[in-house]
């Protein structure tokens, strides 16, 4: 029998209907409190920081004011969304009670839980999916502005500085989108169910990782209206220290996002290591789990380095320190090393979960066991290990430590060996399989094609003499997109179609998935083959006008880009229409063997009424059932 004694009776000064603070906080209160906090701090800083002062503390007054306002935005937003309630209550010696924890989990709240600080991993997964789509939409619009401007040799209607800002903004937004596109939605929604857990190890940290990303978005948008990111997405110093106020938005964006990746990485690792179902030994753990864990294992050491590089950049801007200023004893090479120590593992933070997701789907749509599970693990481990030893191949032309060029060239070329292992696993699984020709299966073929081109073209860039010719050209941009978009995004889109039924309870429209697939893949190959051509002919990247000799190749690339845009719009339409009115999905539409397909639609709050016990691996297709 349920009683009403769990909560104290309303006092004379309070009405019975008044909600406690934890129930009144949502995205609206977060945005309002964040905006008010930043405006208040901005105005106070304007009054308290003198305009004329001789001490170093008061140099670069505008940078100090903007950084203080961005910090105030961050603190205000996180307070307004409710992220600080749990820690504050813990410090006061009174943690949240059961009812409050159930409220945080979003129990019986309907759609409202998606706009609150909700700890249920399934809600967080959907939140990640939506914000990833929004970020891709913004980044795609910026890409189309770039390609439209480059449709003519003399440039278009965008003046050079604005064009540079759009390129920088597009770059960093798309990098963030690709980092979270698999581990965010599917690592949160699917992974705990796949390992037989009821939730993540640290549910509050799970919610925190998402809302940190939301808090990071406004600073990078504000940067566009305060001078922009005119240095390219890498924001090399000391150039970044001398750039417009918009660079402060970039610094805040990266710092907040880095905290999000660190929090998410620790949470995912702990969940997989400590909360796998009974009997799920490491050789019975699905390959997708290995991909997610390898991704966050790379992010955990890499992103703190990036975080610290931006802290030093902010200090150089606001307090005239000299971490990167040669005149003050600093070095621009310090920033390059810090950036690329993050920047190259980050490529595999993006790639590994996408490839692992496709390896997860390969047995389902071939009705064969995964070919050489151990070889797949060795490939993932080899890529992860070598990826932290190759960063300086981006710096051949910088003049830093030329004696190290040969060792870095060797480690870069060696990474093709574990990559080849993953190719063999996919090809071996496809070989003589009973192929079920779905969009996710066709994505495996697309990955093999695109990643082969991305990998082979990357070998040329790893070679010092060849890189001396190709560095800074459109060839590099094409290679980069073949790797991250051709391989990474292809896996992410296949994951969307594959796990859409479990996440939404609806089947993704089959026709729209195929139309989107072919438009994106054809447009992608047309666009970036054209970019390879102009890059080999000598066209530099990050320029808003070019010689007439490159006109035809750029026109081809622009046509391909518009085809990609059409395909992505079809995909967006498919997501919205299928989610609203698609065919209701059965519990296991693909007849797969992993645990996420054993729970009902919609997935219950705690996933499993009774925790499962694992007695075999998840790839027993074609084997006699015991």
Helix and strand layout, with pairings?
Elements: H1 21-24, H2 27-48, H3 61-81, H4 85-91, H5 98-104, H6 121-149, H7 160-180, H8 185-194, H9 203-224, H10 246-275, H11 287-319, H12 332-366, H13 373-387, H14 405-414, H15 416-430, H16 439-462, H17 464-470, H18 474-504, H19 510-536, H20 551-581
Task: Specify the biggest β-sheet.
Answer: none
CATH class categorisation of the largest domain: Mainly Alpha
DSSP E strands, number: 0
Number of helices: 20
Mean pLDDT: 91
CATH superfamily of the largest domain: Cytochrome c oxidase-like, subunit I domain
Which architecture of the largest domain would the CATH scheme give at its second level?
A: Up-down Bundle
- Tell me roughly what share of residues is in helical segments: 55-70%
Helix and strand sequence: HHHHHHHHHHHHHHHHHHHH
Rounded to the nearest angstrom, the radius of gyration is 25 Å
Estimate nothing, just give the exact number of structural domains: 2
Strand content: under 5%
Please tell me what the overall shape is: globular
Helix/sheet category: mainly alpha
Given as residue ranges, the uncertain stretches (5+ residues, pLDDT < 50) are 1-16
């Amino acid at each position: 029998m349920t009683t009403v004694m769990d909560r104290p009776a309303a006092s004379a000064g309070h009405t019975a209907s008044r909600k406690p603070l934890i129930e009144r906080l949502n995205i609206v209160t977060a945005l309002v409190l964040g905006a008010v906090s930043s405006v208040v701090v901005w105005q106070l800083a304007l009054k308290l920081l003198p305009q004329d002062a001789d001490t170093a503390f008061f140099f670069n007054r505008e940078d100090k004011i903007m950084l203080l306002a961005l910090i105030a935005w961050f603190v205000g937003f996180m307070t307004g969304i409710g992220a600080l309630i749990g820690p504050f209550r813990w410090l006061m010696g009174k943690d949240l009670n059961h009812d409050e924890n159930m409220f945080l989990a979003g129990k019986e709240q309907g759609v409202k839980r998606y706009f609150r600080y909700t700890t249920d991993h399934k809600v967080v997964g959907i939140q990640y999916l939506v914000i990833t789509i929004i970020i891709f939409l913004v980044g795609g619009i910026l890409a189309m502005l770039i390609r439209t401007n480059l449709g003519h040799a003399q440039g278009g209607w965008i003046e050079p500085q604005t064009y540079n800002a759009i390129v920088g903004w597009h770059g960093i937004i798309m990098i963030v989108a690709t980092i979270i596109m698999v581990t965010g939605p599917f690592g949160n929604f699917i992974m705990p169910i796949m390992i037989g857990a009821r939730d993540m190890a640290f549910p509050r940290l799970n919610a925190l990782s998402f809302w940190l990303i939301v808090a990071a978005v406004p600073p990078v948008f504000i940067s566009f209206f305060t001078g922009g990111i005119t240095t390219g997405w890498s924001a090399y110093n000391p150039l970044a220290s001398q750039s417009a106020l918009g660079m402060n938005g970039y610094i805040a964006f990266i710092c907040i996002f880095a905290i999000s990746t660190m929090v998410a990485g620790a949470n995912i690792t702990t969940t997989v290591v400590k909360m796998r179902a009974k009997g799920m030994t490491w050789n019975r753990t699905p390959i997708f789990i290995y991909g997610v864990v390898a991704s966050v294992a790379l992010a955990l050491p890499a992103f703190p380095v990036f975080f610290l590089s931006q802290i030093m950049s902010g200090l150089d801007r606001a307090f005239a320190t000299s971490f990167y200023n040669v005149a003050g004893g600093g070095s621009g090479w310090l920033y390059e090393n810090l950036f690329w120590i993050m920047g190259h593992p980050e490529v595999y933070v993006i790639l590994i979960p996408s490839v692992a997701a496709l390896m997860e789907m390969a047995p389902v749509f071939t009705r064969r066991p995964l070919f050489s599970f151990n070889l797949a693990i060795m490939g993932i481990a080899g890529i992860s290990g070598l990826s932290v030893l190759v960063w300086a191949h981006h710096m051949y032309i910088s003049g830093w430590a030329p004696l190290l060029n040969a060792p870095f060239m060797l480690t870069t070329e060696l990474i093709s060996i574990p990559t080849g292992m993953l190719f063999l696993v996919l090809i071996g699984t496809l070989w003589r399989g009973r192929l079920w020709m779905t969009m996710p299966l066709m994505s495996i073929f697309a990955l093999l094609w695109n990643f082969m081109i991305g990998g082979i073209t990357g070998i040329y860039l790893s070679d010092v003499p060849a890189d001396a010719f190709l560095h800074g050209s459109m060839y590099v941009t094409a290679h980069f997109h073949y790797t991250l978009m051709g391989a990474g995004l292809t896996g992410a889109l296949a994951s969307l179609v594959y796990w859409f039924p479990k996440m939404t309870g609806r089947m993704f429209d089959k026709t729209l998935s195929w139309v989107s697939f072919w438009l994106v893949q054809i447009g992608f190959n047309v666009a970036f083959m054209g970019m390879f051509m102009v890059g080999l002919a000598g066209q530099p990247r990050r320029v808003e006008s070019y010689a007439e000799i490159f006109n035809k190749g750029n026109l081809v690339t622009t046509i391909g880009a518009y085809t990609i845009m059409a395909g992505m719009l079809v995909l967006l339409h498919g997501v919205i229409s299928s989610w609203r009115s698609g065919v209701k999905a059965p519990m296991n539409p693909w007849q797969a063997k992993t645990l996420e397909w054993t729970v009902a639609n919609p997935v219950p709050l705690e996933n499993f009424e009774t925790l499962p016990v694992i007695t075999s691996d998840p790839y027993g297709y074609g084997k006699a059932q015991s």
